[in-house]
Amino acid sequence: MKTIEKVLFALVLIPVFTFSLSANKICVTTPNNTLLLSAEEGSELKFVYYGDKLSEGDIENIFCNEKYAPAAYPLYGMNCQGESALAVKHGDGNMTLQMVVMDVEKITGENSETTVVKMKDKVFPFYVNVFYKAYTDADVIETWTEIFHHEKKNVELNNFASAYLPIRRGDVWLSYLYGSWGNEGRLMQEPLKAGMKVIKNKDGVRNSHTSHAEVMFSLDGRPQENHGNVVGAALCYSGNYKLRIDTDDSEYHHFFAGINEENSTYSLPKGEVFRTPELALTFSREGLSGASRHFHTWARFHKIAHGTTLRKVLLNSWEGVYFDIDQEGMDQMMNDIASMGGELFVMDDGWFGGKYPRNNDTSSLGDWVVDTRKLPQGIEGLLADAEKHKIKFGIWIEPEMANTVSELFEKHPEWVIESDQRPLVTGRGGTQVVLDLSNPEVQDFIFDLVDGLMTKYPGIDYIKWDANMSITNHGSNYLDKSKQSHLYIEYHRGFEKVCQRIREKYPQLTIQACASGGGRANYGVMPYFDEFWVSDNTDALQRIYMQWGTSYFFPAIAMASHISATPNHQTSRSIPLKYRIDVAMSGRLGMEIQPKNMTAEEKELCRKAIEEYKMIRPVVQLGDIYRLVSPYDDLGVASLMYVDSDKEQAVFYWWKTEHFVNQHLPRVKMAGLDADKIYTIRELNRIDNKPLPFEGKSFSGRYLMSNGLEIPYNHTVDYHKKSDYSSRVLYLEVQ
Ligand code: GLA
After folding, report:
1. Measured from the CB, is residue 514 less than 6 Å from ligand 1?
2. For the domain that residue 673 is a member of, what is the CATH number?
3. What is the distance between the alpha carbons of residues 664 and 711, in angstroms, rounded to a whole number?
4. pTM of the model
5. Shared domain check, 635 and 618
6. Is the CB of 468 inside a 6 Å radius of any atom of ligand 1?
7. Looking at 303, 336, 355, which one is the last position of a domain?
8. From the CA of 80, how far away is ligand 1's center (Å)?
9. Alpha helices per DSSP H over 623-711
10. Does residue 466 line the site of ligand 1, with CB under 6 A?
């Protein structure tokens, strides 16, 4: 159930308690975090504290100087020099807001308690409800607003951030992700200095290629993985966003997060409720990895479809055959992945098209009919093949798009996003265009596509949902001329509506969010999607960097990570299979390769890896992450581990990132183990002629965490198998 539905559900079933405001202080708590606000009736809502859980005594005694405490949701108009979360123009042209607390409600839901602070403007019938949803099973507080009014004329919303958080100045460092297609999730870390830091997205469709809507603040100096106080924030939105951190002349870094207001002025009519997306906040005393663990737990329980169900090991056809799809080829790939122990085969792009066959990226998007020239037995034939090989079957679609060379475009040219009186701007293949999801007919078309596939072929187990274009030319044929600035917002409302309808009817379906690789790694889409494609770049070495960054906010269960061919199709780098396997095994393992080009020895290595992955899968996909040595620190090695919740099993990954003769690499100290438990070590995916010195030996968690194991820098293999790559995966288990 979507968060808001859960709240509404709770509203119906569970009594709503209205608290007396005489106490003033509002305490929002998770198992280990406290957010404290001051909400005096008739006064402004003030921020008092956010951080480690407070005792009752601390709450009682914390001093809040009402006059100087920062506003919890800063408004424009009566303090014009500061940054604001909300800025509006009332129907009569007045540009100011001055809101006071009217009431506070607490709504108890399953695994959460939501505090609603209701505020009204002192002059206008203009209202903002600020929500704080605190989970009881995860250290995350989601906060968002609902904005509405009863003014005669529409109110223009010029800025409408979801939330604001003041962060006390000191030696605060920001960690965030940046990148580009094929190089997503690059970790950036820098101290916050005076001035404004803006992290934004304006793609219109996808929002995580270049920047990410999630950040972490290390509060006590240079960021550390397993020590130090950290505040994490993730905006749960699929569209354009803006994160602002303003360091002005006050004691605070002012952090704002919300929908990007640029070219999106919203004209709000009387009675309509404008709901901003949730900003998820967490605080950890255990460094960046600690904040990641909080996000991962929350995500698995509440923000990722089937977040606690183990994922299947799959083969995707894309890098194996690209558009060259035919029945025999698919059958052969299914046979191969089944023989290696895989559980699912996904047929990628190239299977559809009637009048225009999809042989490359220049045509056919929108014409979702099976190309029987390539697949004479249709999807039925492929499902029968999958059944024969005892695996599941999945299929690729790109529902939000069309090509100008398609029957869909010929029939509905008005469905595409285009600027009135201007030439159509096209994307991929020179002919790709984006469908206008603000239009309910387009929403129906997309729902019907999935519904049609699932009704006709109920055996489909998995959908790869792609999105390979941005909104390039602003214009909707559906929206009224006066509402053209609503396009970006309405697109994502439409997208979410379709996702909701699909999930209502097909709750069990597995759906991957792909968007030219990692364009849709965000918590706006994840409630409807099981996983995302981290990047179109499958180069194992570069993936270490991308997956490292992505793991700051997203758990391994959601990060599709595939073994691909060598030389790599994106970087042309040649990397031995062992290393490619060891990297892919740290996420949701899959393959993206033509197995018929692999040798019997390579297939056997993959078969064993898949077998061992199945054994460690619960630890990787459901366990706690501890990042140990960052590839970004340029120490020649990167290392991380996953530990199960009982601290009985762990998987340790070690990848060499540079190769020199007589180099010196740090010995890696483990983390997250139980110091008093004794762990037995077993190497997985072993290729060496002789076992590691510690193979089968047992060590205390204390020793492993304070000292760590000496990992040989190179593999001991026959001369012709030597390479410049080296990696290890160790399985630790309490006997
Ligand atoms: C995008 C995806 C790829 C693949 C192709 C198919 O680029 O990211 O994984 O599905 O589209 O055209």
Report:
1. yes
2. 2.60.40.1180
3. 12
4. 0.96
5. no
6. yes
7. 303
8. 46
9. 701-706
10. yes
